[in-house]
Design goal:
9 helices; globular; two-stranded antiparallel ribbon; 308 residues; mainly alpha; single chain
């Protein structure tokens, strides 16, 4: 039996273990652990996490791959080589497609659990879609932060040449033609990984320290502000990104997501404030009415005509 280890993979006989796949799997497992902790903290059933991870990851991979395959620069190749569409182990996934796929996977799981709860007297308890999106947002971002290191081993997601000390070497086979003579490039995967891990810390801090001010869905909306913002910035350095006209598609999607998330966040809290003020007004009116009634009863008790 042969054994070989290279920069991209470990080969044991006929078995190939790619570091790209190992990093994606490591990110998934780390996300599962974090989501289980968040579920317990929010008094939700943590046993749902593994089921959601299985369904969500499958749908995320499908969505991520389709996002990559239908890139206007990639589609001509895959149209000529349809067998390569499923070769996800060679790299080539789009994170916005993964987000959409994972959200769809969670929606299907929530629908299935809630349908079971309606049809069985002793079935599982119903679960909330937005509630679990809040639980999953930091976990998903953690998985992204770890999984991005797989791009290093696949020699992808790098920026233009740089003389900075943290520049990474890129094999000549993976260099763009205009940079064929360059050797070291911006490690965009590293920048995105660090920003994503920082985002996890921010989301967890807000979820814990500001829990009394949060509404259901707020952590998800913060995710849709943080991650698209980091992608928007990094797209300025990305080589060979998918563009709509002259603008990177990821920046267009990012602006749409950030705008929608901010608007929904403001609307959600404005509505919450209005409801709270309405309840406070009603409580004050009820308290005032009760106080006036008590005052009238007190006056009747002390009036001479009412004495026994």
């Amino acid at each position: 039996m042969t054994f070989d280890i290279s920069f991209q993979q470990i080969t044991i006989g006929p078995l190939e273990i790619r570091f790209y796949s190992l990093l994606i799997l490591s990110g998934l497992l780390a996300g599962v652990v974090l989501a289980q902790r968040e579920a317990k903290r929010l008094q939700e059933d943590p046993t749902h996490v593994v089921n959601i991870a299985v369904v969500g990851s499958m749908m995320a991979l499908v969505g991520a791959r389709l996002y990559h395959v239908f890139d206007q620069d990639q589609w001509p190749y895959y149209r000529q080589n349809p067998g390569e569409i499923i070769a996800i182990w060679n790299g080539g996934i789009g994170i916005f497609g993964a987000i959409a796929g994972a959200a769809l996977g969670l929606a299907l799981y929530v629908w299935w659990i809630n349908s079971q709860a309606r049809n069985k007297r002793r079935g599982p308890k119903p679960i909330g879609y937005l509630r679990w999106l809040d639980i999953g947002a930091p976990a998903f971002l953690l998985g992204q932060g770890i999984g991005r290191w797989g791009n290093l081993f696949n020699q992808e997601l790098f920026g233009p040449p740089t003389d900075l000390p943290w520049g990474i070497p890129i094999n000549v086979a993976f260099r763009p033609a205009e940079y064929i003579d360059a050797t070291r490039f911006h490690p965009l995967f590293l920048y995105e990984s660090l920003l994503s891990l920082a985002g996890v810390a921010v989301l967890l801090f807000v979820a814990r320290r500001l829990a009394h001010r949060l509404r259901t869905g707020d952590i998800l909306l913060l995710y849709f502000i943080w991650y698209p913002a980091e992608r928007f910035v990094l797209e300025f350095l990305r080589i060979g990104n998918w563009k709509f006209g002259a603008v990177p598609t990821a920046q267009i999607v990012g602006v749409v997501l950030i705008t929608a998330a901010v608007a929904l966040l403001v609307l959600n809290h404005r509505r919450s404030r209005e409801v709270r003020q309405e309840y406070e007004t009603q409580d004050a009116a009820e308290h005032q009415g009760t106080s006036r009634g008590a005052q009238r009863r007190q006056r009747r008790r002390i009036e001479p005509g009412n004495r026994g």
